[in-house]
Amino acid sequence: MKSWAAIHKVVVIGLGMTGLSVVRHLRDVVSCHKCEAGERPLSLHVIDTRTQPPGADELPSDVPLVAGLWDMSVLLSADLIVASPGIALATPELQEAASAGIPIVGDIELFAWACDKPVVAITGSNGKSTVTSLVGEMAKTADMKVGVGGNIGFAALDLLAEGHDAYVLELSSFQLETTSSLTLKAAAYLNLSEDHMDRYDSFADYAKAKQRIFMHAERAVVNQVENATWPLQPQLPINTFGFERGQYCVANYQGSEWLMAHGKPVMPSTEIALVGRHNVANCLAALALADALTIPRESAKKAMQTYGGLPHRCQLVHESHGIRWVNDSKATNLASTAAALKGLVLEGRLHLLVGGDGKGADFSELRAILSPMSVTLYCYGRDAEAFAGLAAECVMTETMDEAVGIAARKAQSGDMVLLSPACASFDQFPNFMKRGEHFITLAEQFHQEVSA
Questions:
Q1: Which of 7, 39, 191, 327 could serve as a FRET partner for 288 with CA atoms 20 to 30 Å apart?
Q2: Across the strands, what pairs with 137?
Q3: Burial of 122 (0-12, 13-18, 19+ CB in 10 A)
Q4: Least confident of 11-20, 36-45, 228-237, 396-405
Q5: Which residue in the list 196, 210, 359, 438 is annotated as catalytic?
Q6: Is pLDDT above 70 for 99?
Q7: Would residue 210 show up in a list of annotated catalytic residues for this protein?
């Protein structure tokens, strides 16, 4: 545990799940340790610029909350600022605090100060949730008490309170910006593509933020064919994964394609429960991380044979009248949607729903992917126009509901209606989960109308 002796006042920026986990940790763990050491407990304050911050009703009554504005007198009186990932360090108020010499960290840095168990972490533009969850399933299959979270599921500090034997963390570039001390058994950087250009000044800045995952890693797990994912520290041991080569790769063995680890066969790729070619690569990365946590190979294999993936990620949610409805709402950037499309096999026509908050991205790369496909593109939401003309047949709508309604009327047996938006959901939905759940509801609704 980091020495807190010189820290008396902490200001938490942003409430919600992460902010509440920080408050709980600082009250229940850090302040208790300070009291045991004969020191006074921390003084906590929370600032959230939203007028009605989520989780405000769960905040302890003795923790003051400033809502709807920045209170600079409170902010600048802090000994330490803990900022939620959604708050950019470039925010003028945080820049002023940094100029005043006040350290600014995030919840993952607090986790790093307190954690004394093995940790592996995963970042990347696409696939990190799947790999994180799969490694967690591998550990659970081996009867390990493992905590899985970070940017997915549970806040890291809440996991820490449960006393696990090991941790598997998904880390976003936002979380890594405020993390400097995280020691990892292995750090995986899966891939890199344009995302969050509304937050970063350049693509290079986005890539640089993700490189921070390697700062205190014992080993790097990187994409064989994407040099941008490789660590800048030349002395760091590397395990690569890829289809054609690498320590973790696929190769012909006994007449079929097998997953290989350090030249030894693991299992046929056809036995993987996850759907799509991109998930073969995800399994290879997960294998490398499982080895770093010394998860038995048989447990890792069993997990790959049974783990069907996350909700909202290439999830078949309905099939009727020969029409498949697939929910890929987790595809919040171009790379995610491209990965879903490249592994797609269809008898009929694809009805592809795209749009939402594009985060400043250029979607022109989709044109080449869509060109050989029989596809109707349904473009909706704030950045619908960014997709216009990327396919021969484009339908422009205001909302996802309108797009689904038109697709449902046009779809025929053998077709697929796929929600893979390539955008964030925030223009019409609070998060990608709500967007996916609404799509599932619409799929069922239109099925009932057709059947009536």
A1: 327
A2: none
A3: buried
A4: 36-45
A5: 196
A6: yes
A7: no
The reply to whether 145 falls in a domain is yes
Distances (CA, A) of 225 to 238, 257, 278, 281, 283: 13, 19, 14, 12, 16
Q: How far is CA 174 from the centre of its chain?
A: 11
Domain finish residue from 105, 132, 167: 105
Task: Judge contact between 29 and 63, C-beta under 8 A.
Answer: no
User: Predicted confidence band at 149 (pLDDT cuts at 50, 70, 90)?
Assistant: very high
Rounded to an integer, what is the distance from CA 257 to the centroid of its chain? 29
* CA 137/CA 133 separation, integer angstroms: 6
Of these residues, 25, 45, 126, 151, which one is catalytic?
Answer: 151
CA dihedral 437→439→445→449, nearest 10 degrees, is: -170
Question: Are 100 and 64 members of one domain?
Answer: yes
Q: Could you confirm whether 196 is annotated as catalytic?
A: yes
- CA dist., res. 260 & res. 274, Å (int): 17
The pair phi, psi for residue 46, each rounded to 5°, is -125, 135
Find the catalytic residue in 34, 128, 301, 312: 128
pLDDT tens, 306-342? 998 777 888 878 888 889 898 999 999 998 899 888 7
346 in any annotated domain: yes
Please indicate, yes or no, if residue 101 is contained in any of the structural domains.
yes
How far is CA 341 from its chain centroid? Answer: 19
359 noted as active-site residue: no
Domains: count for the chain: 3
Instruction: Write the pLDDT tens digit of every residue in 6-32.
Output: 899 999 999 999 999 999 999 988 888
Is the same domain home to 300 and 337?
Answer: no
Q: Which residues does residue 20 pair with via DSSP β-bridges, in sequence order? A: none
* 306, 329, 352 - which closes a domain: 306
Two structure tokens written together for 186: 């292995």
Q: What is the dihedral sign for C-alpha 16, 168, 302, 278?
A: positive
- 216-217/183-184 β-pairing: parallel
Give the Cα separation of 337 and 318 in Å (integer). Answer: 20
Tell me the residue range of the domain where 20 lies: 9-105
Left, alpha or beta for 130 (phi > 0: left; psi -120 to 50: alpha)?
Answer: alpha
